[in-house]
């Protein structure tokens, strides 16, 4: 596949993430920005692999968007982590989905502070923390 096709697929998927107001759930800009940054980083990293096609990048972009919707809902207290699909979590994090889901449940249990939950969810998704904190 041509590199230009991959670039167009990345741009299109990135724009969908940037323009999807529903991704924010009830999060403030400050709470949502780390999650958005994570999604854009994961998408770019996936697309940078030489064996990827434009179609794979578009499909992965949609997968990232679904995870971001779910993570934003968890961070904002609108949904419990049990609603997240373990296979999808494995795909986007590169780690066992069950472990990621358990760590997200710990992040969700941080109480009504959306900022703390959002920060913890991003740490779990990026692998920066185990969710134990």
Q: Which regions contain 5 or more consecutive residues with pLDDT less than 50?
A: 129-133
Order of helices and strands: HHHHHH
Proportion of helical residues: 55-70%
Tell me the quaternary state. Answer: single chain
Shape, principal axes of CA atoms: globular
Measured by DSSP, the beta-strand proportion falls in under 5%
| Largest sheet properties | none
Average pLDDT over all residues: 84
Question: How many alpha or pi helices?
Answer: 6
| Overall number of strands | 0
Structural class: mainly alpha
User: Distance between termini?
Assistant: 43 Å
Radius of gyration: 14 Å
Number of domains: 1
Please provide a written account of the structure.
There is one protein chain. This protein is mainly alpha-helical and 133 residues long. The chain has one domain. Helix content is 68%, strand content 0%. It contains six helices and no strands. The chain has helices at 3-19, 29-47, 54-75, 86-93, 97-108, 114-126. Helix 1 (3-19) packs parallel to helix 3 (54-75). The chain starts with a helix and ends in a 7-residue tail after the last helix. Residues 129-133 have low confidence and may be disordered.
Features:
single chain; 133 residues; mainly alpha; 6 helices; 68% helix
Quickly describe the structure.
This protein has six helices and no strands.
SSE diagram, text form:
Elements: H1 3-19, H2 29-47, H3 54-75, H4 86-93, H5 97-108, H6 114-126
